[in-house]
Design goal:
transferase, Beta-clip-like, three-stranded antiparallel sheet, methyltransferase, nucleus, mainly beta, 25% strand, binds zinc ion
Length: 147
């Protein structure tokens, strides 16, 4: 089974393909699944309405994470710890969209070994916009903006 590059994961109950599963023999030992970004799967039109409502309610942070052309995961009111992962221009993790039983999910994978008590950080990869959001990561390779 070692060295397989296609098909289902070798673990009998795992729904992932061999290239998606962090436990599969072909995955890099550094690329370990850290956490799933949990929330409600909603369409773009619903996300737009919710974003306005959240602003009116004074909810400053948005936890809307795009997973496809018309699919957004909203972790604002029913998410897990993954929504608190901060941005950094030199991240130790990255987000990956995977499909399990026809449903898109976001999973956070490590890019490198992560020590105990080391903060989990990722690059938000926001699209470029005119109104910039300042980056506060203060790393040597900081891009100064998130978008
Ligand atoms: Zn930065």
């Amino acid at each position: 089974m070692w060295g397989r590059t296609s098909g289902r994961c070798v673990s009998p109950r795992c729904p992932l393909s061999v290239t998606q599963c962090p436990l599969s023999p072909t995955a890099s030992p550094n690329e370990t699944l850290v956490i799933e970004y949990v929330g409600q799967n909603i369409r773009q039109v619903v996300a737009d309405m919710r974003e306005k409502c959240y602003a009116q309610e004074g909810i400053g942070s948005s936890y809307l994470f795009r997973v496809g052309h018309d699919t957004i995961i909203d972790a604002t009111k029913c998410g897990n710890l993954a929504r608190f992962i901060k941005h950094c221009c030199t991240p130790n993790c990255y987000a990956k969209v995977i499909t399990i039983e026809a449903q898109k999910k976001i999973v956070i994978y490590s890019k490198q070994p992560i020590s105990v008590n080391e903060e989990i950080i990722q690059d938000y990869k926001f699209p470029i916009e005119d109104t910039k959001i300042s980056c506060l990561c203060r790393t040597e390779s900081c891009r100064c903006t998130l978008n």
